[in-house]
Structures are given as C-alpha cells and as structure tokens.
Amino acid sequence: MTDNRFFDEMLDGAGGARAPYSDYADWFSGEDPKSLLKKSSEAEAFFRRIGITFNVYGQSEADERLIPFDIVPRIIAAQEWRTLERGIEQRVRAINAFLADIYHRQEILKAGRIPAEIIQNNEAFLPQMVGVAPPGGVYTHIVGTDLVRTGENEFYVLEDNCRTPSGVSYMLENRETMLQMFPELFTRMRVKPVSSYPAELRRSLSEAAPPNFNEGKPSLAVLTPGIHNSAYFEHSFLADQMGAELVEASDLRIVDGRVAMRTIRGYKPLDVIYRRVDDDYLDPLNFNPTSLLGVPGIMDVYRAGNITIANAPGTGIADDKALYSYMPDIVQFYTGEKAILQNVPTWRCSEPDSLKYVLDNLAELVVKEVHGSGGYGMLVGPAASKKELSEFEAKLRAKPGNYIAQPTLALSTVPIMTQKGLAPRHVDLRPFVLVSPKSVYITAGGLTRVALKEGSLVVNSSQGGGTKDTWVLGD
C-alpha cells in the first residue's frame, strides 16, 4: 500500500509500476511469494557462510552481526543516473580542490566564503598536512557520497564521506548474490555492472603512485587496524579482489626512506597504501604516541613524496557536518558553477540564532554531531521520547558547536520482501567514487541502505538497517 506522504520509487500514485520498475513488476507478478521468501532465506545463509559481518560497538551486547540483505532491488533510470553522475563528479572535484587550498594558500578563507574558525578550530584539520602536496595532487581517492531522495528527480546530498568510506564490499556481494539467484532478471533487464570496481580501484590507486615507484606495476597494500575492526571483512575482501597485500602496522617499517612490507625474502618497498586506519592512529611519532595501529615515521616518508596514502591524512575536514552546510559555496568557488546536487537545509548550532531555532523546534528536527558517523550520537526528533529530547537539549546547550540540525526529510521508499509481501521502507544511496590524477570513476549504482523497521528513517547497519542491490539501467 502506497503512503502518499513519501515518494514510492516503485509505484506511482495509482498503484502502477513506474517506468524503471515496469519489467521487474511484470516478472514479480508471475513469481510464487513462497519461493521468493525461500530465496531470501538462502541469501542470508550465503552471507553468513562467507562471513559478511560487521561489529557493533558501544552496546552491552556488542558483537559480530550479519547485515540483513533484501532481495528486491532498487532500480534507477539511466537519465536519472546521468544527472547524479554529473553532480557527484562536480562535488568530488570541488572537495579535492578545497582540500588542496586549505592546506596551502587558503584562498577560500581569504575570500570570506567560509569562516576561518570552521577550519582553524576543527579537530579534523591536520596542521601536519599544511604545505604537503600528495603524489598526483589527489587528496581523497575514494569517496562515498550519501544521497537521499524526496521525489521525482529530487535528490539531495546527505553527507560526504572522504576519510575512509565503507560498504563497497557489500555492494559487490549484493550484486553477486542477485546474479546467482535471479539470472533471468539480468537477461531481461539492462542492468549496468559493478564488478569492475576492484580493478578500477587498483587502476586508480596505481595512477596516484609516487613518480619514483618500483619498475613495473606499483606495489599496493591495504592497511587494516586488524581483525577486530568493524569493517575487517571489507579490508580483506578488497585486498583480495584487487590483488593487493593486506597488512597491519606490525608488517611495516621504514627502510631507506621508504615504507616497506615484511616478506619471507625481507622487506619490500610499497608505493601506495590504501589505509583504513584513522588519522590519529596512523603514525605514533606524528599523532597519537600511544597508537599501536600505525607506522612510526610514515608521515615523514609521505611528506618526502615517497609513498601515496589513500585517502590523504587530513581529508576528514571535508566530512565535517558543519562544513557541509557551506558545500554549495565551496562547489561554486572552485568550479565556477552552481551545485548540481543540492544540500539538505542545515542549521549550524554554533550560531546563536540557529541554536535558538533548533531548541525551539527540536521535536521536528534531526540533530547530528559534526564529527559523528554510523548513526551514532544523533537525535531524530519526531521519533524521540520526551526524556531523549530533554537530554539532547542539555547536550546542545552545553556544546552547541558540536552539532548541526536538519529538517526531517520525507525520504523515498522502496519495497522490501516481507512475510506478507512487499512493504515500503525508507532508503538512502552511497555511490562510490574513485579519483586519480587522470580520471574520476563513479560506480553505476552503489550501496542502497534500507531502514528495515517500519517507519524508521535510520538506515545505518549499526542501527538495524539492511542493504539492497542497486540497479542502474542502461539506455
């Protein structure tokens, strides 16, 4: 049943299938619901067997969990996707130009387009990166841009993930599962592939290698904090898929001014490290001195231009949710164009007038920590109890600069498979972008995250959300 308050991506107001879903709806109408539910259970068993899990932190029952997978794909028309591609590429190019600027000449601050204190007082801004030029000039090599939809051709950027965006392994495994379970659908419908992502990731990282890399192909490694990290499955998966080494800090040391990896034949120099370790833990000599997850001296090698670190240290400033509100200005400043993809309206609680508005309307807004992620530390006003609202009000009054607020959007819905048939649930989308000195590559689709609980707007896996395969149709 369609809820007219929300845009249903599959069904129109009369209950008929929208154009992108027409072939799928015809196929679905001829299928046995019991058979589809059985396949749904088979998918769960498959994911459990190959170990697609994540860790949940900060809860008494914290443990490894399976990310629920829904077998009803999300389908996006070719024309819609072309608009999204243009907007995503514009935004990612602007972010890289912004990062280069704030760690060098800071022209955007001199021009008064964003306030200097939003950079200077920001814990994500790394003074150690000032004046450092990454090999190839690329700061954020892998980007996950979170998009939400509210209507026909109405897409908004919810946030930018420029540090260490996760989820691409789930996108790839979701597609592999759907190909195995419903091969007839891929014969029937022109779905753009996503399987080239690992090869594109290797190509993109290789193109960003320092100019003095070893003869032949650059040597690549994925640096993981280790098996207990929530995204360890993804770290090992990507290293395997792109033919790179999976390493921990204990496998690396500095040898003759290069970062070298321990092998059975001694230490071998590396050219590119795809790091999944946060800035603060990357180098105990330059950042957190107690870190056991980083490589002592790696920043000195990086500053000398003898290693590429993807993403570059200090890119987290572009993830800052207070800075997010300035992204339309940032896009225009560096590209000379208006932003193709719009931001969600945002109130910066650090500003007295905005704080007053947020406090007066807390029950109607979504409030987020400026450095928050994973759905933690946020308030969804319409779903909050009086006690939760009161507690969050105290947090806001104590540290207003830690928060931004946004309206509660009428997120679009996509059907999921339930025991009673199809039921609408809210979704977002994280397309994955690869940036090299030569090109910008955007995966055809990305990871659709779905709020499996009826009425919920929180799609994060850590908060009970699931995932779907995302189909971008060809012309």
Automatic annotation (TrEMBL):
What residue stretches are annotated with the Circularly permuted ATP-grasp type domain?
A: 73-451
Indicate the segments annotated as coiled coil, or none if absent. Answer: none
Q: Which Pfam families match?
A: CP_ATPgrasp_2
Q: By what name is this protein known?
A: Circularly permuted ATP-grasp type 2 domain-containing protein
